[in-house]
Design goal:
Elements (H helix, E strand, L loop, with lengths): L4 E6 L5 E3 L19 H10 L8 E5 L4 E5 L3 E6 L2 E6 L5 E3 L6 E3 L4 E7 L4 E6 L33 E3 L21 E5 L8 H9 L2 E7 L3 E5 L14 E2 L4 E3 L7 E3 L6 E2 L3 E5 L4 H5 L6 E2 L1 E3 L2 H20 L3
């Protein structure tokens, strides 16, 4: 390649290019997609002086290992992530999240794993040289839509970078917090379920199963009994919708969800809690708490204000 680039030594489990998502295509069956953890995505781009909607590499559990070829640049990793830098002189060191790191020709960034979380983000100043697909860098693997032919990163491929000058070193003191309850508003089919099931939905814990990915999160532990109809006419769906199929085990729809579905909807996770929801690992327990629509709207405003305050700390 003529310009700077990364060579993928190890693609990782589910490493894809993502941005803030693909808008207004539900009518042709394409969801928003985009970064699962929006706040960590935005922080990654801000730390390396990129635009807020530039592409980053999102990875789940095990990240990629990338060898760099080119002039000096800064990179950053956000999330709760264990990663190392192997220098071109064969020295190596454990690196720090939320702190920009200068890389040079021949250096290797080895993103080993997330820690008690699912998703992390890798960004490089100047950004990846990609073409937008339907006005977005987001990859929707099931539809094969997005840069990299709609696929995740694979061993041996090369990723070209945009021209850029070395950005200033930056660091953010940031801690990913957890919440005790995932807050939801009532779904459109809330009254399909027995009083006992509705009570249990908010009173008891559910376990996140291994059947969880960018499309949805399947739960188990308390069967929710449908007293009307386990199937309905297919309706439009949104991110965070909690569907309940005939087996009574809830499924929370995530960023790559189907745009229509015929399972009754008991609730919808509020947008302000989505970042924390997607970082909950399989085997963990979660509880739901009902709030009103007005409260959900206010909490989302607070979430956006907090996010902006965090970003404004990065100078």
């Amino acid at each position: 390649m003529a310009g700077d680039y990364f060579k993928i030594i190890r693609g990782g489990l589910n490493s894809t290019f993502q941005d803030l998502g693909r808008k207004n295509l539900y009518h042709i069956g394409l969801p928003f997609s985009g970064a699962m953890d929006k706040r960590n995505y935005l922080i990654a781009n801000k730390l390396v002086n990129n635009n807020k909607n530039d592409a980053v590499v999102e990875f789940a559990f095990q990240g990629p290992a990338l060898k760099y070829f080119g002039e000096k640049r800064n990179i950053v990793v956000t999330g709760n992530v264990n990663f190392k830098i192997l220098k071109n002189d064969n020295s190596k060191y454990n690196a720090e999240c939320y702190k920009t790191i200068k890389i040079e020709n021949g250096d290797i960034i080895d993103i080993l794993s997330t820690i008690n979380s699912v998703y992390g983000y890798f960004s490089v100043n100047g950004g990846f040289k990609l073409d937008k697909v339907w006005d977005s860098f987001s990859t929707t693997i099931r539809a094969k839509v997005g840069p990299n032919n709609g696929c995740k990163l694979t061993d041996g491929q090369e990723i070209e970078l945009n021209n850029s000058k070395l950005s200033p070193n930056k660091k953010l003191n940031f801690i990913n917090t957890k919440i005790e309850f995932i807050r939801v508003i009532k779904g459109t089919n809330y009254d399909y379920f027995s009083e006992k099931s509705l009570k249990n939905f908010f009173a008891k814990t559910f376990k996140v199963t291994k059947l969880t990915d960018r499309m949805g999160m399947r739960l188990e532990g308390n069967r929710l009994d449908n007293i009307k109809n386990t199937n309905i006419k297919s309706e439009g769906l949104v991110k965070g919708t909690i569907q309940v199929p005939a087996d009574g085990c809830p499924i929370i729809l995530l960023s790559d969800h189907g745009t229509i579905g015929g399972y009754p909807k008991i609730g919808v996770v509020i947008s302000a809690d989505y970042d924390k929801l997607v970082q909950i690992t399989p085997g963990s327990k979660i509880k739901f708490k009902e709030i009103q629509l007005k409260d959900a709207e206010n909490l989302y405003k607070i979430y956006n204000m907090e996010t902006n305050n965090i970003l404004n700390k990065i100078i």
